[in-house]
What we know:
By secondary structure, the protein is an all-alpha fold. Helices cover 81% and strands 0% of the residues. The chain has a single domain, classed as MetI-like (MetI-like fold). It starts with a helix and ends with a helix.
Amino acid sequence: MQNFIDAYSWINIRFLLEGLWITIEVSLISIVISFVLGTFLGIIRYAKIKYLSAIVGFIIDILRNLPLLLIIFFTYFGLPNIGIKPEIIPAAIMALSIFESAMVAEIVRSGINSIDYGQTEGALANGLTKWQALRIIVLPQAIKNMMPALVSQFISLVKDTSLATIIVLPELMYHAQIIYGQNTNYIIPMFVALAVLYFIVCYSLSLFARYLHKHIA
């Protein structure tokens, strides 16, 4: 019990919260970028545009089958070899956004495909173009269907920020490692704290998504 009391000193808690802030910041920016980019790529793949859809689909399949850790490693250590030298936080955001965009693109494509094509035909019969039908009629319904899968993917993104410790991203997991690296008696208390903090962030995200789902409905 004394180990827990000592581990949860104000200095350590504040240090963990600083790491948590970096985790939240990186996660939120990556979620926004991956949602926008993934939606765009998913629509392109769904639209079956000659050559372009096939190329996008090929790239998505490659990204989905690569380990996120490898993408993070390549983004930070590989890009400097071609003249691009991102800082740690931008590199983590770039890697997470690229990987999650591929996942979101497949969710978007599946969500659009889940909408009965008769609705598109009805919109076309009423004078809308194919893109207007997609934007006004199909996509809003598809987003409602996609919400559970998107939330699950974004919760995974929050947890996946811990993989960026490989490039020394000063996020929650990295700060916990520094604390228990100074005193091995703090290992269990730190992992308990990590579990609580990750749960709070991820559960809050799921509650917010549940609110949005009801609002959309």
